[in-house]
Amino acid sequence: MSANSAPSPIAFLDGSYIPLKDAKVGIMTHALHYGTGAFEGIRGNWNSDHEKMYIFRLREHYERMLRGAKLLFIDIPYTVEELCKITVEVIQRSGFREDVYIRPMAYKGEEKVANLNLKALGDSFFCLAVPFGQYIDSDGAISCCIASYRRIDDTMVPPRFKLAGLYLNSILAKTDALSSGFDEAIMLNQDGHVCEGTGENIFVVHGDTVATPTLESNVLPGITRATVIDLVVNELGLRLEERPVDRSELYVADEVFLTGTAAHIQAVGSIDHRLIGSGSIGRLTKSLQDLYFPIVRGQNSKYLHYCTPATPIGAKSS
Ligand code: PMP
Question: Can 162 be counted among the known catalytic residues?
Answer without folding.
Answer: yes
